[in-house]
Structure to design on (330 residues):
């Protein structure tokens, strides 16, 4: 059986990790009696921790929020996970997060024991963020304001810059923020267009005051991320196609990003790819370069264009063979 001080720390860690525990669950985790759990809860309250309890069959214990709540307790794996998350956040597309993440990471490293500090230091010394293309940075204040509006069901007003560079005034009921590896997107009901729209957050400029509150509508899809993926990879383009790929969906997903197409498993050996492009030639090249056998489901024009390209490639291959053989004979 754990000593009292160690048991109290373990109890506090459990309360921080889960919204609510029954007395029996805590007693089982701590390997003590329910009576001991009640005594330990009282000790935590004496130390200033706001532990709330409810009675009855559905009763239990939960840790309340409060200004006097001491710092979180983290086990070894949790501490390293937080450090990795902070280091990753320092290289994301949210402007202002870099410096805050570095400061938070420095504070965390100061209180880590030596064994964990070495693990975190190794992460810093032997890992590097991959450079290359990144999406335009978004102010952290903008993200916070959008999230609060989604939570409070508060109508937003903003100016939006379209693909052609023109600006338009929008009044939108915000529902969800979706983040890709490079960009942030807002999904909402556009009152002026009377339809659902997806907006790139880096292209909008909020123009408060916001409001009033709105009554939620039936969402356009159960999976918000999939909805945005389809919108930015397919619906946004003039040419759209559905292709049957002769490969499992998880294998194809290793080669195609959510921003480049939407995958739907058919069975263990095939999947459907829905994607878009600026032209049929670009679409054909995109599908061909995936490296899988495929069948065009729609549109018919894509199949016809691929047949034309195949004939052109065949002529080029035959000419190369003939010319190459001629040079070889000389």
């Amino acid at each position: 059986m754990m000593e009292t001080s160690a048991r109290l720390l373990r109890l506090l860690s459990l309360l921080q990790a889960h919204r609510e525990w029954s007395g029996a669950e805590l007693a089982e985790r701590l390997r003590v009696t329910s009576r001991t759990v009640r005594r330990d809860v009282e000790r935590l309250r004496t130390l200033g921790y706001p532990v709330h309890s409810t009675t009855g069959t559905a009763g239990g214990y939960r840790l309340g929020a409060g200004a006097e709540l001491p710092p979180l307790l983290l086990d070894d794996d949790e501490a390293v996970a937080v450090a990795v998350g902070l280091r990753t956040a320092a290289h994301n597309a949210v402007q202002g997060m870099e410096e805050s993440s570095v400061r938070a990471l420095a504070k965390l490293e100061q209180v880590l024991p030596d064994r964990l500090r070495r693990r975190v230091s190794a992460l810093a010394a032997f890992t590097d963020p991959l450079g290359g293309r990144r999406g335009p940075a978004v102010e952290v204040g903008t993200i916070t304001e959008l999230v609060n509006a989604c939570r409070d069901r508060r109508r937003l007003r903003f100016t939006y810059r379209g693909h052609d560079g023109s600006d338009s005034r929008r009044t939108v009921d915000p529902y969800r923020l979706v983040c890709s590896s490079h960009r942030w997107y807002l999904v909402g009901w556009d009152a002026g267009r009377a339809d659902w729209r997806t907006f790139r957050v880096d292209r909008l400029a909020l123009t408060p005051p916001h409001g009033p509150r709105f009554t939620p509508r039936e969402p356009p899809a159960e999976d918000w991320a999939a909805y945005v993926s389809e919108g930015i990879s397919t619906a946004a383009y003039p040419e759209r196609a559905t292709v049957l790929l002769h490969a499992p969906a998880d294998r194809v997903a290793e080669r195609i990003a959510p921003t480049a197409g939407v995958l739907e498993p058919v069975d263990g050996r095939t999947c459907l790819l829905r994607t878009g492009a600026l032209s049929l030639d670009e679409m054909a090249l995109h599908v061909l370069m995936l490296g899988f056998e495929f069948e065009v489901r729609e549109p018919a024009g894509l199949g016809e264009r691929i047949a034309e390209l195949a004939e052109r490639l065949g002529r080029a291959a035959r000419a190369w063979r003939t010319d190459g053989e001629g040079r070889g004979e000389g």
Observations:
- The two ends are 90 Å apart (CA to CA).
- The longest strand covers residues 167-179.
- The chain has four domains: 4-63, 76-126, 138-220, 232-308.
